[in-house]
Amino acid sequence: xxxxxxxxxxxxxxxxxxxxxxxxxxxxxxxxxxxxxxxxxxxxxxxxxxxxxxxxxxxxxxxxxxxxxxxxxxxxxxxxxxxxxxxxxxxxxxxxxxxxxxxxxxxxxxxxxxxxxxxxxxxxxxxxxxxxxxxxxxxxxxxxxxxxxxxxxxxxxxxxxxxxxxxxxxxxxxxxxxxxxxxxxxxxxxxxxxxxxxxxxxxx
Amino acid sequence: xxxxxxxxxxxxxxxxxxxxxxxxxxxxxxxxxxxxxxxxxxxxxxxxxxxxxxxxxxxxxxxxxxxxxxxxxxxxxxxxxxxxxxxxxxxxxxxxxxxxxxxxxxxxxxxxxxxxxxxxxxxxxxxxxxxxxxxxxxxxxxxxxxxxxxxxxxxxxxxxxxxxxxxxxxxxxxxxxxxxxxxxxxxxxxxxxxxxxxxxxxxxxxxxxxxxxxxxxx
Lengths: 204, 218
Prior knowledge:
The complex is a heterodimer. Chain A is of the alpha/beta class. In chain A, 27% of the residues lie in helices and 24% in strands.
């Protein structure tokens, strides 16, 4: 399933931040988004994930194909690691969390409450959620925040395995994951500020 | 869907989940009424249906601000919105979980508290029936209010102000059923209207809740 983005413009809080973006993400490929803070990477990812409508342009091939990982992991502190993962697996209509637990070295923590995990462990649990969704397109926003070097390698392995199975990944990150991936710098697509005229639409 | 319901129930029963708070609130409010109006059993038995209904409504209201706000804060609402489950079912399940953890205990506790307020014997069954029919509407309408204010810091009070007027029809017909039942009058008309309000809320409001939630998630 190819994810195609055509002439996409996205807005945050009503203000256009990026415009004229086009790319295609084919199965087995990864695309790394780069750009300075505040340029609109998160907004772009949320738009591609369908959480907000695009200002203009189209996103095709994303419906019911994507798994989204945001800044926050969506974990419930009073549920155990295994309960959190099992919940997300069954929401996506799948079962079997062992592979995900193995992939992110969480087996020894499986009965611990998510609230008692360290920041890095929480992040690992949040990322292992991607494995239980079974969705082909991963959309990830700064996935390596608070991960140590080993965990980053673990994450890169998981992405590589996912790409190997014909999946694809769209990742906004600042660090080098060591993936054979295309890099898209969104800086040049920064939206021009809207022209100011005397007419104030707010009074309509 | 079942997974979401089970998760919400599990969360409610675990530490800090808030199960029983609404019930305790209901208990305390009802126990305090005789203190404030004095030990006049005749007056108490006359106001009992209304007091019990109002207490149940406030107890329901009290537990609403956690309904979606917690999921919004930890990001699970974003993730649920990208899951295969449509948001309409998500909010319906959340309302159902709220009803099981808040509304149902209120229905079960109401007859016990009716004794405290000297509710006439013939009124007990209609009190339970009216609450059983009315509390689902309270949960569904409350979910709509919670969806409207999700993402607002300290949105709880605003939500109460928005939801209370929407609770008025349910309150009027619910306590009317309980009052007429207690006085031995025919209850059919308010009972049908109460059932109609509940049925319409359950049928329509999940769509409205999902729509405002989509807007709020942007």
